[in-house]
Amino acid sequence: MKTFARSTLALGISLALVGAANAADFADMDPVTLRLAHVVNEQDGFHIAATKFEELVEERTEGKVDIEIYPNATLGDERTLLEGMQIGTVDMGVITNGPVANFVEEMAVFELPFLFPSPEAAYAVLDGPIGQELLDKLSEVNLKGMAYAERGFRNLTNSERAVNSPEDLDGLRIRVMENPVYTDTFRELGANAIPMAWTEALTAMQQGTIDGQENPVNVIHSFNLDETQNYMTLSRHTYAPAIFVMGMPAWSQLPENAQEVLLAAAQEAAEYERQVNAEMESEQLQALRDAGMEINDTPDMEAFQAAVVPVYEKYGEQFGDYLPRIQEALK
C-alpha cells in the first residue's frame, strides 16, 4: 500500500514541477475563460476537485486562464456535457467514468465489479501507464483526458429492505448509470437494473418509481439520500474513477505552456479530492446513521463476487488486453 501511495505522490510532485517550469511567463498570452461543468452539488467531491483546479490554474497562469465552474447539471447531464466538449459548446468537466466509457469502450474496464481491492491499488493503475494510455485514447473521439479524480467505491442503497446477499436484491428496482457493465452487474446480482441519468434518478426515488441506487458514500451523503433510502449496504462493488476531461476544440486553442499547467493542476486537484474523500467518509457514514439509515458494514462479499463471474466472462475480451494487464499489475 505504501508503495502505491509513494508512486502517486511522486507523480503529483513531478507533474507540479513540470507545470511550474512551463508556467514561467504568461505575459504575452491573451486571457481565456474555460467553462468547467459537472452534474453534482457544491458539497460533492467533484466540486472540491473543480475548485482546487480553478485555484491552481488561475494562480499559475497569472490569471490569464480563468475557470468558471457550472455545478448541478446546469449545462446538462454527463453525456450532454461530453458531446458539448466535442463540438466546443462546453470546454471541460469532471465526469464520472461510466458515461466516458460510452465514448471509449475500454474505459469501462475499470468498472468491472470487485476489480480493485483498495483505493491505493486503483490509484497505482490509474496514475500509471495503463491509466495514461486510456486517457490518451480519448483524443480519438475529440476529447482530452487529463487526470483521474474519483467517484469512489460504490455502495448500494434502497428503500425496501436490508441487503446482505444477492438473494436480498431479488426484484428490487435499482437505478444504475447508463453503462452496460453496471446494468449487467446488477442483473446478475438479481436486481431489476434501470439505467437512467442521475438528475432523473433523484426524482424517481422521491416518487417511489425506483427502490434504490448505487453510489459512493459521498454522493449518498451530499444528496441526503437518507430521506428516501432507509438501507445502505457497504458492498464496495465497483471503484469508479472520475475524469478531468476537456474538449479538443478548447484544448487545441491553448498555448503549450498553458496546456502544461492544466495537466499538472488536474493531477494535483485529483489527488487532493481523493484525500478529502478518504478523510470525509467516516464522518459521512456516521451522519447517515444518525439520520436513521440502517447500514450493513459486513455483507456477504463472497456471495456477491461469485454472482458477478458472468460479467467477466461477457466483457473480459471486449477490453482487449487491458483486463489481464490490470490483473497482472495488481498482483
TrEMBL record:
Gene3D superfamilies: Bacterial extracellular solute-binding protein, family 7. The keyword Lyase does not apply. It comes from the Bacteria. One of its GO terms (biological process) is transmembrane transport. InterPro entries: DctP_fam, TRAP_DctP, TRAP_DctP_sf. Keywords: Signal. Residues 1-23 form the signal peptide. GO terms for cellular component: outer membrane-bounded periplasmic space. Pfam families: DctP. The keyword Isomerase does not apply. SUPFAM superfamilies: Periplasmic binding protein-like II. GO terms for molecular function: carbohydrate binding. PANTHER family: DICARBOXYLATE-BINDING PERIPLASMIC PROTEIN, PTHR33376. This is DctP family TRAP transporter solute-binding subunit.
